[in-house]
């Protein structure tokens, strides 16, 4: 990548918000493709398999609201976004394992698209914009891949199919007319590509930093303007305005949680049945969990503060218990430290604080054995972050088994 592009994105990740958010270099997604290619080739070599075939992913499709003609705001499928950075719906993407060439397949749009939705871009536009080796139309997938394949027999497709253990949903393997002309591998790609998403490059970290910076600014702006008598959704509105106006963040990483009073005890408050609509009262605590998304990469920030700006003694006790646990984990973290041990440390610090404040009575070791801490922290210590709020979604089966043994209710 050109030095100027690196410097621009690096500077933007540490500078204040502006009305001109930085342009994201497509080299980021080129690098992601190269990372996958290297990992997949290594996996095939370890399995004594030839470096033949194509990685083939199907991008996301626009969705209408039920049976209406209202089209919901499109956001690209995350694995496809990771590899290709394509904003538009209806695309397919392929990587030739033998040559390393990357190929996009664009939908062939009807002429009246230009009247309603704007200019119909030529394939050369997508080749230049997304820095791929070649671009064809989706109705040319079969012929192009057959022509490009250098192996024997039917061309082999490595399709994305695997379980997200957070949602228990499976990723969708690509489908297209004529797929019966190909051999299909549904098991190899998902674990390799998912592992590639775990460790972020410097450019990915810079984008996450941008999303976090603008989200942090927005949280501070909301805190400054919060007062009794407001509605929770007004806090959400201020956050959304700031991140979009000054950060160019059209999407959020997840549904905003603007919880006050007793709503703060509901982990995923803010959904349609609990829509951030309570009136803030003097003496309430506010718990705001909101994060903006910038160029597919997200943030996740939770902060808690008294609506009137002043803690009561009980509120201060709880707040500082959590803060002490947070600081203890940060101080103890280093390579080789167990995630589960850090969760136990957080629980222990919180229980100690509650015992000192006479909220709990009993032996601390006994409380730890009986998992009393799970009553106050019924979720995991944290999660990875990236293109998805839980990025990549889920954990390997062995890790999930170890977590289950410690009786996590969920990973938050």
From TrEMBL:
Residue ranges annotated for the Aminopeptidase P N-terminal domain, each copy included: 24-168
Name of the top EC class for this enzyme: hydrolase
Residue ranges with Low complexity bias: 10-21
Name of the protein in its database record: Xaa-Pro dipeptidase
EC code(s) of this entry: 3.4.13.9
Annotated stretches, region: Disordered: 1-25
Cross-referenced CDD domains: Prolidase
Catalysed conversion reaction: Xaa-L-Pro dipeptide + H2O = an L-alpha-amino acid + L-proline
Cofactor(s) this protein requires: Mn(2+)
GO BP annotations listed: proteolysis
PANTHER family: PEPTIDASE D, PTHR48480
InterPro entries: Aminopep_P_N (IPR007865), Creatin/AminoP/Spt16_N (IPR029149), Creatinase/aminopeptidase-like (IPR036005), Pept_M24 (IPR000994), X-Pro_dipept-like (IPR052433)
Organism whose genome encodes this protein: Gossypium raimondii
Family: Belongs to the peptidase M24B family. Eukaryotic-type prolidase subfamily.
Gene Ontology molecular functions: manganese ion binding; metalloaminopeptidase activity; proline dipeptidase activity
């Amino acid at each position: 990548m050109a030095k100027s592009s690196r410097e621009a994105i690096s500077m933007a990740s540490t500078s204040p918000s502006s009305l001109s958010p930085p342009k994201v270099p497509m080299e980021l997604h080129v690098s992601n493709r190269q990372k996958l290619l290297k990992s997949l080739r290594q996996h095939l070599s370890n399995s004594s398999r030839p470096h033949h075939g194509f990685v083939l992913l199907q991008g996301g499709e626009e969705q209408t609201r039920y049976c209406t003609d209202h089209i919901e705001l499109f956001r690209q499928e995350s694995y496809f976004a990771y590899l290709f950075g394509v904003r538009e719906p209806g695309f397919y993407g392929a990587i030739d394992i033998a040559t390393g060439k990357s190929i996009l397949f664009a939908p062939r749009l009807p002429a009246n698209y230009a009247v309603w939705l704007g200019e119909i871009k030529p394939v050369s536009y997508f080749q230049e914009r997304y820095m791929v080796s070649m671009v064809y139309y989706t109705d040319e997938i079969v012929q192009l891949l057959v022509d490009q394949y250098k192996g024997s027999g039917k061309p082999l497709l490595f399709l994305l199919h695997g379980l997200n253990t957070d949602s228990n949903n499976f990723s969708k393997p690509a489908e297209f007319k004529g797929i019966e002309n190909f051999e299909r591998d549904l098991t190899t790609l998902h674990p390799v590509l998912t592992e590639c998403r775990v460790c972020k490059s410097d450019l990915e970290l810079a984008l996450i930093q941008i999303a976090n910076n603008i989200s942090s600014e927005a949280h501070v702006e909301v805190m400054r303007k919060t007062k009794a008598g407001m509605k929770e959704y007004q806090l959400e509105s201020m956050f959304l305005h700031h991140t979009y106006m000054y950060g160019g963040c059209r999407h959020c990483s997840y549904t905003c949680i603007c919880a006050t009073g007793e709503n703060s005890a509901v982990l995923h408050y803010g959904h349609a049945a609990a829509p951030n609509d309570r009136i803030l009262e003097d003496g309430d605590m506010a718990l705001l969990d909101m994060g903006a998304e910038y160029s597919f990469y997200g943030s996740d920030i939770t902060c808690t503060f008294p609506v009137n700006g002043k803690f009561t003694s009980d509120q201060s006790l709880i707040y500082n218990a959590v803060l002490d646990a947070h600081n203890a984990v940060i101080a103890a973290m280093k390579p080789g430290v167990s995630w589960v041990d850090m969760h136990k440390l957080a629980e222990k610090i919180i229980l100690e604080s509650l015992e000192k404040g006479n909220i709990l009575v009993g032996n601390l070791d006994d409380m730890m054995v009986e998992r009393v801490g799970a009553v106050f922290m019924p979720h995991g210590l944290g999660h990875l972050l990236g293109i998805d709020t839980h990025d990549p979604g889920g954990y390997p089966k062995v890790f999930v088994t170890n977590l289950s043994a410690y009786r996590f209710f969920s990973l938050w």
